[in-house]
Write a structure and sequence with these properties.
Layout (H helix, E strand, L loop, with lengths): L25 H15 L6 H8 L3 H7 L3 H21 L10 H18 L3 H9 L5 H6 L5 H17 L8 H17 L1 H7 L7 H16 L3
Helix pairs in contact: 1-2, 1-6, 2-3, 4-5, 5-9, 5-11, 6-9, 9-11
C-alpha cells in the first residue's frame, strides 16, 4: 500500500493561512515623503512617519531605503533635480540680451510645476530655500552657477539700458521672482480660510503671478 506523506516543509506551521502583507512601491514612498515634507517639514519627518502615511511597516521602507539619508538623496535626485534642470533650462542660451524674456520663461516653468506638484511650493520655501535645509544642501550643486551669474550680469546691463527697474538689486531679482510665484501656492490653505469667497483657481493664481512678475521687472 502506498502511504501519502503528510510531512511539512520546515517553515510551515499549522493553523490559519498567513495574512498577506501589504506592500508598497518605491515611488509610493517618495510621493509620501514629499507630501509629508510639504505639510510638516523635512526635519520633522521620519521614516516611520512615511511608512504610516503609506500604510505599511517601517521595515517596508527599509526594504527600499537603507536609511533616511538615502531617502533624502532619492527625493533630491528624482523629485527635485528634474525641476531644477527645467527651471534653469532658459539660461542655457548664447543670447542673454533679453533677460526679461528669460526670467519670464523661468516664471512660466515655476508656475507649471507648482500647479502640477502641490507639494513643491511649501517644501521649497520651508527647506530647499533655506541654507540650513537638508534638501538645500543636496540641490545646490545642481544649480548652474555660471549661467546664473551670466543672467545677473545681463540684468545689470538691462537696467543700464532702462529696460528693467534700476532700483532692483540684480542679484536678488530671481529670488524675488521665485517668492512671488511660490508664496501664493504655499499659503493657499490659509488664504482660502481667510477669504472663502475669493477665486483661488489655478487660472486666477496664474494671472496673479504673471502680473506680479511683470510689475517686478517693469522699468520706472
Amino acid at each position: 500500500m502506498t502511504t501519502l506523506s503528510t510531512s511539512r516543509a520546515p517553515n510551515d506551521k499549522p493553523g490559519r493561512p498567513g495574512r498577506a502583507r501589504k506592500t508598497a512601491t518605491r515611488e509610493q514612498f517618495l510621493d509620501a515623503a514629499v507630501a509629508l515634507f510639504s505639510r510638516q517639514g523635512v526635519a520633522a519627518t521620519t521614516l516611520a512617519h512615511i511608512a504610516r502615511e503609506v500604510g505599511v511597516t517601517s521595515a517596508m521602507v527599509h526594504y527600499h531605503f537603507a536609511n533616511r539619508e538615502q531617502l533624502l538623496d532619492a527625493v533630491c535626485n528624482e523629485k527635485l533635480v528634474p525641476f531644477v534642470h527645467a527651471l534653469h533650462a532658459p539660461l542655457h542660451t548664447e543670447n542673454m540680451d533679453d533677460p526679461v524674456a528669460i526670467l519670464q520663461a523661468m516664471a512660466d516653468c515655476l508656475l507649471e510645476h507648482v500647479v502640477r506638484l502641490p507639494w513643491l511650493a511649501p517644501m521649497w520655501l520651508s527647506d530647499v530655500g533655506s541654507t540650513s535645509g537638508e534638501l538645500c544642501q543636496r540641490v545646490m550643486p545642481h544649480v548652474p552657477a555660471e549661467q546664473v551669474n551670466q543672467l545677473t550680469a545681463a540684468i545689470a546691463a538691462a537696467q543700464a539700458r532702462g529696460t528693467i527697474n534700476p532700483n532692483l538689486q540684480p542679484h536678488l531679482i530671481f529670488m524675488s521672482m521665485v517668492g512671488l510665484v511660490l508664496l501664493p501656492f504655499a499659503s493657499l490653505d490659509d488664504c482660502r480660510s481667510l477669504h472663502p469667497d475669493a477665486d483661488f483657481s489655478p487660472e486666477a493664481l496664474r494671472r496673479h503671478v504673471v502680473a506680479a512678475v511683470d510689475n517686478l521687472l517693469r522699468p520706472l
